[in-house]
Amino acid sequence: MKIGTYYYPEQWPRDQWERDFDRMAAMDLKIVHMSEFAWGTIEPREGDIQLDWLSDCVELAAKRKMEVILCTPTAVLPVWMVDKHPDILLSGYRFGGRRHGNHLHPALLDYTRKVVEKMAERFGDHKAVIGWQIDNELASDSKFDQSEGTHEAFRGWLRGKYGTLDRVNEAWGTQFWNTFYSDWKQILLPPGRQTVYGNPHQSVDASRFWSWTFAQFVKLQADILKPKVGKRFITTNFMPMHADCNPGDMADSLSLFSWDAYPATGWENSPKDETFRMASHTAMGLMHDQMASYTGRWGLMELQPGTINWTGVPILVYPGAVRLWIWTAFAHGA
Question: Are residues 261 and 302 in contact, defined by beta-carbon separation less than 8 angstroms?
């Protein structure tokens, strides 16, 4: 079993990198995972793609006999990109943070092709690189973009699925409350999945469409990587039971399925005992089996190492729980 760590060299002074890699090696960590949030460092100005610093880090790992998982950096956008294309953001968002880019925007797709191609050319056959992660935790806070381009893409997806507007009306049961459509342009992507008086059939198709858009974004990158990386795995890190995307939509693009497990979050109300500090073994087992069901090859990309600070009530993980989670994953074929 190989255990590794995430590392963000772009966030640390260069003169600390060697020290940090020495400490990883001293802890007997075998893998280092880098670059998923580094687009602004990789491409600080449009077209100026800088990979020497990342190459230095790959070599620092290789010299210590550590393996590397490299990531495409498309979960964050450089500020110059937003300045040039303000509508590249999801509707209602401002620059800053992550997962705020509209992955349907033509400019984002073009920039994505270019940066992934450069990374694949530079590192695709590097001996230390064992695999690639595309993007990071595909999600959009359960909200759907409301730009006209996204509405039109939804209509195009519906045309491909149903063919005619009459068939859309029939499938959605729009005679109820006279909510039928007489023109394609009248159909809008709902703002989110929750429906009070909305059409639940339309909501389901909206969720399927949104998952499809993420799958197309992953496919764009996977198709660039595959000819360059040989037998190295290609994955993305899913979140447990998250409705933003159906991992099965990406089975043709990914050779390994992985997920991020932060199971002891302290959100439980009035626990009667301390089992909440160990998390639900049944829920984790379900996710392990789901990830194993697509290609038979799966892993844990992120695993909660202890107390985390982004929950409502941070808790101290029960002694031995992390070891239990690792062995549970191993028992499920990670």
Answer: yes
